[in-house]
Design goal:
The protein has 411 residues and is of the alpha/beta class. It has two domains: 106 residues, Urease, subunit C, domain 1; 289 residues, Alpha-Beta Barrel (TIM Barrel), CATH 3.20.20.140. 37% of the residues lie in helices and 22% in strands. The strands form two sheets. An eight-stranded parallel β-sheet has the order 5-6-7-8-9-10-11-12. A seven-stranded mixed β-sheet has the order 3-2-1-4-13-14-15. Helix 10 links the parallel strand 10 and strand 11. Helix 5 crosses helix 6. The structure holds N-(iminomethyl)-L-glutamic acid and fe (iii) ion (FE). The site of N-(iminomethyl)-L-glutamic acid has 13 residues, from helix 4.
């Protein structure tokens, strides 16, 4: 049945169309017609004709309203955990050392290959539910723990299935270029060619790929590998992204910029020239403070350089078993402020308008304005800065998805 027009009034609305409009309240009412926002502003200015069309009126009792949140970088689908490695790191062994010994990503690959589709779904669902409870309605899910054609396909199918079973939009990202699997040990260049030229077209043909990513870093893949992969992505008209500069600058950003990457993510190691390249290419910088925190890194991303260059900053959980066993985007916002020095409004823009851009979902998602999707959260809070201020406290009251109450209760 078609949704009638609805007036959502007595709200403290933070539109998040830009960092500036993520800083404070800009409107007290909005009108949705079907799945879209028709109008947003001060209720006193609402045209009588439009008000008369509103069959439903929801008084939000002065509560904060923001766009629904977007987690634009996750590895949500995986089997097992790496709590043992966490304990090892506590004893002083580094993440890169554990990876060199065949642990790290490859230990999750072993667990994920051994898990069937149902087990992968069961494992991912609690993590997804935790995100949804915080007002998330769109997430990215990467592959990258399968590293064979069919194991990657299974991860991506599970990601799609999560989107069907839960009220969330899932964007899938193909990340077979995450590690070299044991079958290709010592033959990394050959593995890269296979995953780029054989597996990617096949998975795209099966409709499983929305974007293509590569882990471009010391001990991982090179800038030349990124070029090979991105050429294959371009031939299929798929957008690209890059894990870059988590540990070292191996020259990937220049390649990412040449392919107009949607985003480059991590970026603890980044210079001014690369920040300028990202700005020119229109790429978003996705900051992953929980991974930085978990690994006990000490050099934060050069946020000042990124800001000065005009690169939009997004914030995501990076939910994964190794570097970010975390299913809280609100916690990631707090850490982006406290560890990376983001302003509270930058953190909020980072999980709304800029996150939407990092997934190619802007401007319909991640911002509240006429014409955008009616996807918003009602918080039991009064000011936007409270979202980054609290930790361990989730004040999400209700989630409106495509104009309808999807979760929680209206006041
Ligand atoms: O985003 N850096 C590479 N990929 C993940 C870690 C994956 C893992 O350790 O399992 C990341 O941090
Ligand atoms: Fe990641």
């Amino acid at each position: 049945m078609a949704l009638p027009a609805a007036l959502w009034r007595n709200a403290r609305i933070v539109p998040c169309t830009t960092v500036a409009t993520a800083a404070s309240v800009h409107a007290d009412a909005l009108v949705t017609v079907g799945e879209r926002i028709e109008w947003l502003g001060e209720e006193a200015q609402l045209a009588p004709g439009l008000r008369a069309r509103c069959a439903a009126v929801h008084d939000l009792g002065g509560r904060l309203v923001t766009p629904a949140l977007i987690d634009c970088h996750t590895h949500l689908v995986f089997a097992g955990d790496r709590a043992e490695e966490f304990a090892e790191r506590q004893r002083g062994v580094s993440y890169e050392e554990i990876a060199r010994r065949g642990g790290g990503i490859l230990s999750t690959v072993r667990a994920t290959r051994a898990a069937g589709e149902a087990a992968l779904l069961d494992a991912a669902e609690p993590r997804l539910r935790a995100l949804l409870r915080e007002g998330v309605t769109a997430i990215e899910v990467k592959s990258g723990y399968g590293l064979t054609l069919e194991d990657e396909a299974r991860m991506l199918r599970v990601a799609r299935e999560l989107g069907r079973r839960h009220d969330v939009d899932v964007r899938t990202t193909y990340l077979a270029a995450h590690a070299v699997p044991p079958e290709f040990a010592g033959r990394g260049a050959e593995y890269l060619r296979v995953l780029a030229r054989e597996w990617l077209p096949e998975l795209a043909r099966r409709g499983l790929v929305d974007a293509v990513d590569i882990y471009c870093d010391r001990g991982a893949f090179s800038a030349a590998d990124a070029r090979t992969l991105f050429e294959a992505a371009r031939a299929l008209e798929l957008p690209v992204k890059m894990h870059a500069g988590q540990f070292a600058d191996v020259g990937g950003i220049g390649v990412a910029a040449q392919f107009a990457a949607l985003s480059c993510d991590h970026l603890e190691v980044l210079d001014a020239a690369d920040a300028a390249r990202m700005a020119q290419a229109g790429s978003v910088a996705v900051l992953l403070p929980v991974a930085y925190y978990t690994l006990g890194q000490t050099q934060p991303p050069p946020v000042g350089l990124l800001r000065a260059a005009g690169v939009p900053l997004a914030v995501a959980t990076d939910c994964n078993p190794g570097t970010s066993p975390c299913a809280s985007l609100l916690l990631a916002m707090n850490m982006a402020c406290r560890l990376f020095g983001l302003a509270a409004e930058e953190a909020l823009a980072g999980v709304t308008c800029h996150a939407a851009r990092a997934l190619g979902l802007a401007p319909a998602r991640g911002a509240l304005e006429a014409g955008a999707d009616a996807e918003f959260v009602v918080w039991d809070l009064a000011a936007p800065h409270e979202l980054s201020y609290w930790t361990g406290l989730n004040r999400c009251r209700a989630v409106i998805r495509r104009g309808r109450l999807a979760r929680g209760t209206l006041p």
